[in-house]
Each structure stands twice: as C-alpha cells, then as structure tokens.
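Suppose you are handed only these lines of text.
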Amino acid sequence: MNNGTMKAVGVHPGKREVALLRHPAPRISAPTELKIRTIEVGICGTDREICTFAYGSPPDDCDYLVLGHEALGEVIEVGPRVTAFKPGDLVVPTVRRPCPHSHCVSCRDARQDFCFTGDFTERGIKMVHGYMTEYFVEDQVHLNAVPPDLRDVAVLVEPLTVAEKALAQLWQVQRRLNWGGNGAAPGAGKTAVVLGAGPVGILGAMALMVRGFRTWVYSRSPEPNPKAELVNSIGAKYISSETVPLAEFARMTGPIDVVYEAVGVAKITFEVMKILGLNGAFIFTGIPPEKPAIPVEADTLMRRIVLMNQAIIGTVNADRTAFEDAIRDLGLFKERWPDSLRKLISGLHPLENYRELLLGKAAGIKNVITIGA
Ligand code: BGC
Ligand code: ZN
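From them, the structure of the protein bound to zinc ion can be written out as follows.
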C-alpha cells in the first residue's frame, strides 16, 4: 500500500482495457464491517468473459471494475459490533449482494441468489468491486469462517458452492420421489453424469461421490490428460466424448438419475439431455456467451421430458448455507483425496501475471492468484 492506494486488477470497459491499477484502500465504515487482507483469488470463466467486455459492469461512480469473486482472506481489523470474527481468522466472502426493493422476498430473506428484481449486485462482476486486490472491507453477514487446516484449498470454496446449491435443489425436487436428502449417502445406488472437467465439474464430481453416487464425467479431451487422471483418482470415471460417442456412453452408464452440467456449451449439453433417465434431473450451471442458434432435437427432448417426468433446473450463485456446506465438504474431500484436491489448483501466480491468466489461452485446471502469503 502507498498513498492510501493498493494494487488491483480491473477492467475498464470504456477503454476496453484490462489493467493493473492503483485502487483506494478500503476503510471500515460501519460497526459490523471487517477489513480483510486478501490471501488468494481464483480465476474462472466469468472473469475471462468480463475481460472480453461481454459481461460485468463497474460501480455507478467508477469507470473500472476490480475483478475477482473467488477469494480467501485473513481478518485484520473488526468493527465494534462484529461478533462472529476476530483478527487472524480466515474467511471466504460470498459474491452477491441483495437488491434494495422491499417487495423482493428473496433478497429480504437473505436469499439474493434467488433475487426477483435483477437489481442485485455481485462483487467483482456486477457494480461492486471484487477481491483481486490487497484488502477489502465487508459486512460480517457476507463472510464465512474457514478452519485453518483448509487454508491451502479454501479458495475452492466459491466454485464448490455451485454444486452445493445445485444439490440442495436436487433434494428438494426429488423429494417428489422420496429420495433422501438427509441420509448419509443419498446418492447410493444412483447414477450421476457430470458434463465438463473444469473446476466446477470436478468439484461437482467430488460432491456427488461423497454422497454415494456412481459418478461419470463426460468431457471432450481424449485420455491421457491431467483432468481425466484427477477424475479417475477420486473413483469417478472419466470418459472422453471424442473417443466414446454418446450412444456408447449411455450403454456404459445405464439409466442416468442426474446430469450436472458444468461445461457451458449448449451443443453437447442438449445431446446429453437425450440420455437422461426416467424421473431424472438435469441441472444447468454453465453460462455460455451469446452465440448463433444451433439445431436441437426439440420434439424428441420435449417428448422425453414429459413422458419421463424429467426436471430441468438452472442454478446460479449461492446462499450462505451453500458456502457452509462447501466448507464442510472441502474438509471431507481433503481427508479423502488430499492429493487430488490439491492438484485441482494447477497454478499459483503473482498478481502481475494477470494478463496471461485472464486474456491468454485457458490452461490448467484452477489458476489462483496469490496476493498475500
Ligand atoms: C459466480 C456467481 C455469479 C455468476 C453470474 C459466477 O461465476 O460464481 O456467483 O452469480 O457468475 O454472475
Ligand atoms: Zn466464478
């Protein structure tokens, strides 16, 4: 820090620039706020998309947006009415902040992940600065405590919340079939397919595995490759869509109870929808950029969705419970697959490498920027 400013990586949509900036250091301005020193920030497809200027927006009073929504930090200062944290605690912040409207029952109920008005904000994405900087200030209600023994993997909490929110909805929807959401292994005897082997896909596969699902990951790259190795190392089965066509894949899996889409590409996703089983659920998490229309077998799909009682669910963002579930599950994953979990973080980089990470060719699995040790 110098002159009350700090290093930050941000986008400047007006100038169509991604840059290392000097950004004012934040100060606690309400009694329930905390000041946090950023330790690590993960980079995801959303950040890379914001850097194409197709998505994301700066705060109203600023011409740039500080990026970063997947963070781990250490509390360094607490406001006088902070009850839940003390300096030295590790925290992971949530992403979305509620809209201001009194009629939005979701936001008023701390469920801004289901905001009805669309006037929510998101740190590092929509109208509020993110965490790709040295310090940030946040209210205690938007922070989650992380046990010290998860420090090396806690940057994965936010991407894991995608799966946690998805699974919470899966149990709700499948209660129509008396699927147990509370039992020790609610997925026992059931088959799940994960589409895509990026961080959201692999973390989703881990979450499905610990709940007892027979888990397949269908992704493009032929074997051998590091993602396939990682998937197979946790006891899920990696299958390349380039070497195994869909019909053959369907014969291998047998009836599919759940598809967890984490690829963000419509073509393969709608093809896989044709092999979802009876009473199955199909969960979309990917956010593809706008693209020209493509043909889909719409009548076949519609017929199957109805005759097979299928549920199609889209899910975005995550509530506090999903963060708490992710922190708990990350502990389980670390016990069960310590090496695999660590390999998910394929690179630790200094902030100065931001260009290559945000604008270069996507490489590795989860790339992380280390800001403070
Ligand atoms: C983030 C979510 C956010 C979504 C849409 C994702 O990358 O993880 O928190 O809601 O982008 O902006
Ligand atoms: Zn993300």
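What can we learn from it? The CA atoms of residues 219 and 274 lie 16 Å apart. The first helix runs from residue 45 to 50.
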